[in-house]
Amino acid sequence: MTLQQMFDPAAVAVVGASATEGKIGYEAMANAVEFDGPVYPVNPSGEGRLFGEAFVDSVTDIEDDVDLALCCVPGAATPEVIEECGAAGIGAAVIYAGGFAEAGEEGERLQEAVVAAADRHDVSLLGPNTSGFVVPERDLLCSFASGAEKLPAGNTAVIAQSGGVAHALAFQSRRQGRGVSAMVGLGNRANVGFTETIDYFDGDDRTDAIVLHVEGTDDGRGLLEACRASETPVVAYKVGQSDVGAFAESHTGALTGDHELYTAGFAQYGVPTVDATDDLLDAAAALADSPAPAGPNVGVVTAQAGPGIIISDRIQRGGGRLPELSSETQQRVDEILTGVTYTGNPVDTGRPMPAFGDVVTAVAEDDGVDIVLVYELYEQAMGFPVEALSGLAERVGKPILFSTDGIEEDMADDLSALADAGVPVFETPERAADAAAVLARYAGMAGPAAGQEVVADD
Description:
Elements: H1 4-7, E1 12-15, H2 24-32, E2 39-42, E3 49-50, E4 53-54, E5 68-71, H3 78-87, E6 92-95, H4 105-121, E7 124-126, E8 132-135, E9 140-143, E10 153-160, H5 163-175, E11 180-185, H6 194-202, E12 209-214, H7 220-229, E13 234-238, H8 245-252, H9 259-268, H10 277-288, E14 298-302, H11 305-317, H12 327-336, E15 347-348, H13 356-364, E16 371-375, H14 386-389, H15 392-396, E17 400-403, H16 408-420, E18 425-426, H17 429-444
Parallel strand pairs: 1-2, 1-5, 5-6, 6-7, 10-11, 10-12, 12-13, 14-15, 14-16, 16-17, 17-18
Antiparallel strand pairs: 3-4, 8-9, 8-11
Helix pairs in contact: 3-4, 6-7, 10-17, 11-17, 12-13
């Protein structure tokens, strides 16, 4: 099985396409036609054209080589549709309908019939019970949700068990000005799940970080092995600390399992975990846009003491360390800013100054520092130390994170300059500290001994 036909198709068929607004077949077609390749509406009851494309009766009637089918038909009709897709040489399909394994024994039998049809023809299935996926850079909008066309391209792949969470993460990423390389809702994971998608996006040139939303899986071992094999950093949000098992199982057929066992397994396989969707995206931004940290030691430079205290406390509670700066670094800071408020770690300058960037550089060049976090409330007369930060992370081989606050329109140009320089920016001291703590945990993680059991399959 390859996911190339799913996430990088040459042509797409929308099976069950409808001219009736509000139906999934209409909404899916409305999104699909944004694609830069051929899109075919398929419905034996369809007449004329839909969004400028002529209806065809069956995928087997399409003369073009179609890679991907978007199945907008009721659950009971899905096995026959997958058989037709296989006969037409279509290698991938998205199944939007529910009523499968999440709906009891009858639904489980229906899902087994769909998987059997897919197995006979080697068809990769996303779903059932999913809202689909989006690859913004290719305008590949295989979702029936409105707003999918407004998602910007970025370098984080979102892989979520829930299609609703997948879309929520993608929309959050848009509001943060970051974007996604792909957004995928796995749904019931009939034959495409975490292992397959992690492996695919690890090899995707557009993806520099992978984030996971996990309710539960019957292949915990495969999930962890895929994470460990990935050269692309992976961060996970495992839900289900309280008793939500019955609700989760009715949602995507998931068994949530022991939460602590999952998080311990992720940690031992090199995957930091977080407890909120915005934390997931912040961690991805830190990992995707930065050199890999060599250790957990964080050097903090702040222009205001209060936020610096919040940051210092939160980093240490999150697993990072604040080492003492070397005597050479402290002397260097003293020479840059005589009478600086505090030259330990964090370095507190009291307020933004013309030489603020030089202080950041001094801390970044300290051999005992693995990660640098900078906090500075915006002052229009000073701006941000963009010139000092530009290229600094690459030169010292360390992540450089930046956090600020101020009036949005006043900061806009400087924030844009930081983005162009590849500097991850965070809106609050807590979010910046949590992202730095994820980097610190990521640096300190090591894989388990061979054969060690960490997560039992549900």
